Amino acid sequence: MDAVLHALADPHRRVMVEALCGGEATAGQLGALVPVSQPGVSRHLAVLRDAGLVDVRPDGQRRVYSLRPAALAEVDDWLTERRRVWEQRMAALHTEVARGRRQRRSE
To answer: What distance lies between CA 41 and its chain's CA centroid?
Structure first.
């Protein structure tokens, strides 16, 4: 999960991942979306590949990238649990605030 979060921490890589949500794209198409040199695009794509976020397949001289949504499942599970915990805490806080208001009104 750390590798996925690290990969998604970069805004250029997030743009590439968002683009791949719409379907496959070549390295050139992904590179055209960000203000980065071709070697930089290659490094960004390597980080995404190493994190397991994208698959790559050769197509003649080009490399075609596709998103691997399963790589995001672990992050989604972690976020779901964090969200559940915070929702419980916020509900408890709301209850305490309401209880305090009732006590102030009754005094």
So the answer is: 18
